[in-house]
């Protein structure tokens, strides 16, 4: 069985591989432009430019124009995520470095905290398999669609409706040039989604690990406070253990607050881009499904829903862990502490009552309530678009 540090390294290696494949260079030594980054930026510009050109070409036909824009919102969101990650390279490196040093390296197999660390290392590893399989699964479904149409209807079609200027995809050579470029777009985009979304899950799961470690230490401190030797102040050894454990709890709580604040700042604009682009992308593909028989729109719609929902599920997990920490602090036997530490406890409890977690550009938290409101807004936008087309 793999140890916690081995599972962590396996999960972290996936992030580093995705970063290298799209040239983000989040954990590389080189700064500035590299060949991988130039290639990714070129693909982003080409992806958006070709979609705009195709939409302009078929501007006279509303349905074909809709099909040509089925993925433009996804590409726009990926562009914003990509530039946000590059701009915040140093904070990402700092957070990931602190996680390994303060948890997986600090708590080895012989420590009492190791079962907690082992649990979250497995969750992190399994989550990576699920997210990678899900994103590449949608890519496989989109690839199957042209084959299905070819064998059932005898006609060729592209992976998605995006043409290259002066390249006729209806002939054999032009078709394979267009499809090859589209496959490159898909693979690069999927790696970008894995990097950003799995990195978000990476920070969320390890943030939950920080919270459960603090709760574990609070339980240990509660047992020490209940010792007769501490209550009668007759055991200097237990008193010293209480002092040490209390200092650990204070430091860990401060670290959790700073961790979630940095994480929220990193993902603030990413969440805004994700929500805005996903809402319009979902609406476009719902219209395509309702008005045409283009089966690839189902796979794109499914991927957009999953990509949007993942962020809100992770935000809800953070909100729940923060609430669990507050409950643990409320139930903590603070009355057994001395007067000075009771004052420190009040400050600790006051800070724990202030919300921490992801937000959408600081406007609203990322949780299930916001998700419900966005789904209502999406329905209204879809109904408005349908009335306009009718």
UniProtKB/TrEMBL annotation:
Cell membrane listed as a keyword: yes
Membrane topology: Multi-pass membrane protein
GO term, biological process aspect, one: signal transduction
Main location: membrane
Gene Ontology cellular-component terms listed: plasma membrane
Source organism of the structure: Anopheles stephensi (Indo-Pakistan malaria mosquito)
Database matches in PANTHER family: ODORANT RECEPTOR, ODORANT RECEPTOR 19A-RELATED
Subcellular location: Cell membrane
Transmembrane region(s): none
Keywords: Cell membrane, Membrane, Olfaction, Receptor, Sensory transduction, Transducer, Transmembrane, Transmembrane helix
Keyword set includes Cytoplasm: no
Gene Ontology molecular function: any one: odorant binding
Pfam families: 7tm_6
Full protein name: Uncharacterized protein
């Amino acid at each position: 069985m793999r140890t916690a540090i081995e599972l962590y390294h396996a999960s972290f290696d996936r992030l580093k591989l995705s970063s290298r494949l799209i040239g983000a260079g989040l954990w590389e030594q080189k700064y500035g432009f590299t060949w991988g980054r130039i290639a990714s930026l070129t693909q982003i510009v080409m992806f958006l430019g070709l979609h705009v050109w195709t939409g302009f070409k078929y501007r006279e036909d509303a349905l074909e124009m809709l099909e040509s824009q089925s993925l433009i919102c996804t590409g726009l969101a990926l562009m914003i995520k990509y530039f946000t990650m590059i701009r915040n390279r140093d904070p990402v490196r700092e957070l990931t470095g602190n996680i390994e040093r303060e948890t997986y390296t600090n708590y080895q197999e012989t420590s009492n905290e190791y079962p907690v660390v082992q649990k979250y290392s497995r969750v992190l590893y399994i989550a990576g398999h699920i997210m990678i399989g899900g994103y590449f699964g949608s890519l496989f479904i989109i690839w199957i669609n042209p084959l299905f149409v070819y064998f059932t209807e005898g006609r060729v079609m592209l992976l998605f409706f995006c043409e290259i200027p002066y390249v006729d995809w209806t002939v054999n050579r032009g078709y394979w040039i267009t499809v090859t470029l589209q496959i490159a777009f898909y693979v690069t985009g999927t790696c970008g989604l894995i990097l950003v979304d799995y990195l978000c899950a990476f920070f969320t799961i390890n943030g939950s690990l920080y919270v459960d470690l603090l709760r574990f230490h609070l339980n240990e401190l509660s047992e020490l406070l209940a010792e007769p030797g501490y209550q009668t102040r007759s055991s200097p050894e237990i008193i010293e253990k209480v002092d040490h454990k209390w200092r650990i709890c204070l430091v860990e709580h401060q670290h959790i607050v700073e961790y979630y604040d940095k994480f929220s700042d990193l993902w603030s604009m990413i969440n805004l881009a994700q929500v805005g682009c996903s809402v319009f992308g979902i609406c476009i593909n719902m219209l395509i499904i309702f008005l045409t028989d283009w089966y690839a729109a189902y796979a794109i719609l499914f991927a957009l829903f999953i990509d949007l929902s993942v962020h809100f599920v992770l935000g809800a997990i953070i909100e729940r862990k923060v609430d669990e920490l507050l409950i643990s602090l409320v139930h903590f036997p603070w009355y057994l502490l001395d007067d000075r530490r009771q004052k420190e406890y009040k400050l600790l409890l006051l800070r724990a009552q202030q919300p921490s977690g992801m937000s959408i550009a600081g406007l609203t938290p990322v949780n299930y309530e916001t998700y419900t409101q966005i789904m209502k807004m999406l329905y209204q936008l879809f109904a408005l678009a349908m009335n306009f087309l009718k």
